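Q: Given only this backbone (57 positions), what sequence would you predict?
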């Protein structure tokens, strides 16, 4: 067996709980845009998964 080994799994933004019907609730809300509060072609909030290993001999 290895003297030191650590395995990890990390996940971010697994769930988005909101009543907003679109892809991204963080849409443009400033008054300089023509379509205020619309996310017609915006990207959804990404889910990020990380897996790693740290091994010391």
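A: Predicted residues:
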């Amino acid at each position: 067996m290895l003297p030191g080994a650590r395995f990890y799994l990390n996940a971010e933004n697994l769930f988005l709980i909101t009543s907003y019907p679109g892809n991204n609730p963080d849409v443009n809300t400033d008054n300089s845009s023509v379509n205020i509060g619309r996310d017609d072609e915006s990207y959804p909030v990404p889910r990020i998964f990380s897996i790693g290993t740290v091994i010391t001999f």
